[in-house]
Amino acid sequence: xxxxxxxxxxxxxxxxxxxxxxxxxxSALEPAPRNEQGWKDRHASINKKAAEAGKKCELVFIxxxxxxxxxxxxxxxxxxxxxxxxxxxxxxxxxxxxxVLWRLENxxxxxxxxxxxxxxxxxxxSGHCRKAPAKTSGNENHSCGDLSPRRKSQPATxxxxxxxxNHSQVx
Length: 171
Known about the structure:
Elements (H helix, E strand, L loop, with lengths): L1 H13 L5 H6 L11 H17 L5 E5 L1 H4 L6 H7 L6 E4 L5 H9 L10 E5 L4 H4 L4 H10 L29
Parallel strand pairs: 1-2, 1-3
């Protein structure tokens, strides 16, 4: 049930709050796979890692190349700080939001019941899609809504968007 809650929370944060009209206006909200063999191989290896971690996993990192980078340049930091949580890296370089959503619906979370997730997506949507900035940034605004009315069988979920820095207190 926790795994279903977590999957619902992540997917709902990006899809459930949107009407079909918004999804059509924002292609990033429609889950879509990529066709490159390297991407398919990475997706399969992530599914395997998730299955191996199973219920021990307390923390997942979800994202693109920045997230995948924990396996390269960030390897020591990962080992020092995140292995104790049986963390799983769900990052694939070049992924856009729609690719991450597709992966979450197609095995990347299978068997996991983490306590927390670090989500870093959307960077690759900003330049590749050649859409107006308002359409690109609009995706994040719609994904922060209160999900509780849409998940009646799950506990209430509060809206916790990033806070704006108060620069008057700096210094």
